[in-house]
Amino acid sequence: MIARQSGAALLAALMLSACTGGMIPPSAGGPAPARPVTSGGSSGQATPPVPATPRPTLPIDLPAEPALDKATAAGLGVTRGPDIASLIPSGERSRLALAAFRISCPTLMRRADASGLTRGSDWNSACAAASSWPEATASEFFSRYFEAVQVGDGTAFVTGYYEPEISGSRTRQPGYDVPIYRRPTDLIDVDLGQFSDSLKGRTIRGKVNGTKFVPYDDRSQIVSGTLAGRGLELAYAADPVEFFFLQVQGSGRLNLPDGGVMRIGYDGQNGRDYTGIGKLMKDRGLIQAGSMQDIMQYLRAHPAEGAAIMNENRSFVFFRELTGAGPLGALGVPVTPEATVAADPKFIPLGAPVLLSLDRAEPNGIWIAQDTGGAIKGANRFDSFWGAGARARGIAGGMSGRGSALILLPIGSTARLARP
Description:
Layout: H1 8-15, H2 73-76, E1 78-80, H3 92-108, H4 124-130, H5 138-145, E2 146-151, E3 155-163, E4 165-169, E5 178-181, E6 188-191, E7 203-209, E8 212-215, H6 219-224, E9 233-237, H7 240-249, E10 251-255, E11 261-269, H8 277-283, H9 292-301, H10 303-311, E12 317-322, E13 340-342, E14 353-358, E15 365-371, E16 381-388, H11 390-397, E17 401-410
Parallel strand pairs: 3-16, 4-10, 13-15
Antiparallel strand pairs: 1-2, 2-17, 3-17, 4-9, 5-9, 6-7, 7-8, 10-11, 11-12, 13-16, 14-15, 14-17
């Protein structure tokens, strides 16, 4: 989101299998969604939640003629929300959300809204005001320029993700010998819709071998060295297990031997199916609870068996160095720690504010939908971004909040949407 799945979402990604066939996984064609996270990292523990009482969802007035297409927010239906002036907390969360909304505006005003909730021009007044609004009074900005709607039943589920940090080096040296590869030039995307109308929207990825188009090398082949000597080495990781999880996340930071930091981001995937190794391990009785700590502990305690298990996930992710602001979310702007959520763009306009009220306190307040994720599907499903470092890892790794969500839309735009 960043390229990802999520804390609870990373664990879910590790436990489940992804798409079948040679289809390119979600987000592979653009900025990677903010990805799954580890449950506290290789040795850290998830931060205990701070309990809270979520605001109840709104009662739904069923329309006389239900929409046939419920694959978008407009089709699913929205209910006008309450006045939000008293619901938006002041403080750092709102300040960060205003800053995130501000940088989203240029894209938000020209982007087609797949949810069917807004038009680009709806955002003009709010974006114009955001450009100079003082962040000290951010909560007033949101209450003045937005009104709330509830999408569907409003029941929210929120996980977390973060930007992992692992030990790495720009050059191969003792203790740093796990190659991190750039995207190979012979990795080709094929739009099948160009060959048949029945295949529109479907894409495969592979390489040319003689006169045939064949699947690209899988993880076991790449780890065995099929890409070695081609000048594709971007950097080297110290720990193959940590690098495996960074690949699942899709972006991260390499802590270099000289004390510097190298940030790397998603630059494609080999087109092979993603397989969640957690489920494999649990089904075989190798782990019990299936926590991230359980998975990593087994992989390290049994290096040969662990390497074979990791290779059963045939997917392999390629990276590029990030030198500007970032990591970038699916909206094409840098994601903001403790202000960005990944969401399903069919149910929330990317760039729109979201007001969360959950059964744990840390995520409650205003967030901005700036990212997407392969595991983030459906109405009121969100993945919250917590940044980098031990605190972010601890909160994101254990994030699993349930409650209610309201989507904030520009004042006036809900009149054509809300149920009578």
